[in-house]
Amino acid sequence: MHKILNKNKKILIVGGAGYIGSHMVLHLLEKGYTPIIYDNLSEGYREAILGGEFIKGDLDDSYKLREVFSSFDISAVMHFAAFCYVGESVKNPEKYYRNNVFNTYNLLNIMNEFHINKFIFSSSCATYGIPQKLPLTEDHYQNPINPYGNTKLIVEKILQDYDIAYNLKSISLRYFNASGADTKGRIGEAHSPETHLIPNVIETALGRKKDLKIFGNDYPTPDGTCIRDYIHVLDLAQAHFLALEKLFENNKTDFYNLGNGEGYSNNQIIQSVEKVSGQKVTFEYVERREGDPPILIGSSAKAIKELGWKPEFNKIDTIIETALNWHKNKKFGRDFNIKS
């Protein structure tokens, strides 16, 4: 438990209208911080922001960013504004390098102009590439196998160099598959189009999706489908908060894995959704998706020890139960034609 509480500090949340960012905004509000949300709403939803101050803007808009830093006494920046689809990054790497690298670089340089030197970065287990050992630990060699992972690793390297050169302190959080939703069902996953497994399986169970595809059943795993480590979005938000507190307290650049240390195959996810929803899920196997490792499971021992992180929602049925509740009753997203 950290002794230093930074009540009323203003935290800039870039990408705060998105899936993970909106849960982070909610968590900061509950902890007494003041979130300033900066988002262009290309992927996020205005309806997902449940408090704080919202500014619509792009990260490549240097004038707008300078205006934000001039208007608010920002204590730290949290970054949730990356594109995050592995398959899309393979097909359209330019989109990913431009947003995930160039736009983040622009943000960091403007932070330096305003002498704001605390940055929480949502990185990814995709920086590791094909695991040489499992579970993955932070000292595992980083060798991404897709453009998405490359963009995250490039930013991590920039942050290491900016620490040395400009005293910009950061914590990078390499997390695994974000999943689940707010336990009260107020916000949740509403991508458009949706490519993540759990929401697509749930939408199929609810009868809203008819063509569920599982990419590959010939992987070197027990049932032939990919195995992933799923982490609840609220546990992610808690870890980001603890990282922020640690950065205020110790002012030291670092990096942490965030996962549950247990993997579930695509088939096991389908079975869990069927169990929780009581509905049969129909699907078909198709060819592997380029850029997907067979197994990704992470060790979060470092975050548990050094951040005092204690995941609360680490059972897959619990994760899926919160997601199912959101999807049954969601109030914004592609089904409501109110994306803005």
Describe the structure.
This protein has helices at residues 19-30, 62-71, 86-91, 93-113, 147-166, 197-205, 233-250, 266-277, 301-306, 316-329, and strands spanning 10-14, 34-39, 53-56, 74-79, 118-124, 169-175, 177-179, 213-215, 227-228, 230-232, 254-258, 264-265, 284-286, 295-296. It is an alpha/beta fold and 340 residues long. It has a domain at 10-179 and 231-259: Rossmann fold. The strands form 4 sheets. Strands 3-2-1-4-5-6-11 form a 7-stranded parallel beta sheet, sandwiched between helices. β1, α1 (19-30) and β2 form a beta-alpha-beta unit. The protein is globular, with a radius of gyration of 19 Å. The relative contact order is 0.15. Residues 336-340 have low confidence and may be disordered.
